[in-house]
Amino acid sequence: MPEPGAGRYAPSPSGDLHVGNLRTALLAWAFARSTGRRFLIRVEDLDRVRPGAEQRQLDDLAAIGLDWDEPVVRQSERLPIYQAAIDRLTAAGLTYECFCTRREIQQAATAPHGPMGAYPGTCRTLTEEARTRFREQGRPAALRLRSAATEFEIVDELHGRYRGPVDDVVLRRGDGIPAYNLAVVVDDAAQGIDQVVRGDDLLPSTPRQAYLASLLGLSVPHYAHVPLVLNAQGQRLAKRDGAVTLADQRALGATPEQVVTALAHSLGNPATSAAELLDRFDPARLPREPWILDGNGLLQRSRCP
Ligand SMILES: [Zn+2]
């Protein structure tokens, strides 16, 4: 029997999860478990880490009824596997050093046939003399992919065929840390993850990641990009939007079960627990529009189903 595939949830431990994060986690778990997959947690801690946040996030995921397969992995413990992937791309002639500052990239004109806002390729053709000069100036160098494509197509369970831009994506940042796009691709493959369920704000970067996977000879996972939770102004939900974490809700007297009930209802599912949601889970019936949450709307919804 082939090993079952896996789905995953990959939070950044920069603070507490809010209900938008919890809703995406609930969906990732339901997609994985309803298809017989393992469900893995990966802590994406290459960036900002708030002490204690990882444990609180795991506690909150358990409190809303999610379970996962061990071990929980941390990106900070996997630096050699990212470097190995970067080395393979470099050996294949597919990388180059980029000395641009963020400001220079913003000011540069977009490449004529590249996607809007994409890196214009300034450092693609730097001479060895120019690179040496930049190094002597002490300019930090990021490592970029020498992309042969400008577009790549993926298939998404909710969005269908999706074609999006591919550019010379950063593989290793100027501070030496592996870049998000590279780490995600390497991790998903290394962990046997064949189903990626995440917020649809990440859909535009998915063609880049799938292209990168194909260059590394890795299989491209199945994708499902799910609608986000937005505030009343139509912006992605954030901590400033009120009582948006489980701790906030507890302080207002709402139990995790009530929060799960509200999340399930927002997904068109009349469940009152994660287990019930899983029993009735039907991806075809998921809403395709964001869930707008205003003020203390979560509590009101959870009390008046
Ligand atoms: Zn550059």
Give structural notes.
The protein has two domains: 6-76 and 227-303, 3-Layer(aba) Sandwich (Rossmann fold); 79-183, Glutamyl-tRNA Synthetase, domain 3 (Alpha-Beta Complex), CATH 3.90.800. Helices cover 35% and strands 17% of the residues. It is built from eleven helices and twelve strands. The strands form five sheets. The chain has a three-stranded parallel β-sheet with strand order 1-2-3, with helices on one face. Strands 4-5-8 form a three-stranded antiparallel β-sheet. A two-stranded antiparallel ribbon has the order 6-7. Helix 1 (19-34) links the parallel strand 1 (6-9) and strand 2 (38-43). Helix 3 (79-91) crosses helix 6, helix 6 (180-190) crosses helix 7 (206-215) and helix 9 packs across helix 11. The radius of gyration is 21 Å and the shape is globular. 37% of the residues are buried. Bound molecules: zinc ion (ZN). Zinc ion binds at residues 98-100, 122-123. L-glutamate binds at residues 8-12, 44, 180, 198. Keywords: Aminoacyl-tRNA synthetase, ATP-binding, Ligase, Metal-binding, Nucleotide-binding, Protein biosynthesis, Zinc. Residues 8-280 form the Glutamyl/glutaminyl-tRNA synthetase class Ib catalytic domain. Belongs to the class-I aminoacyl-tRNA synthetase family. GluQ subfamily.
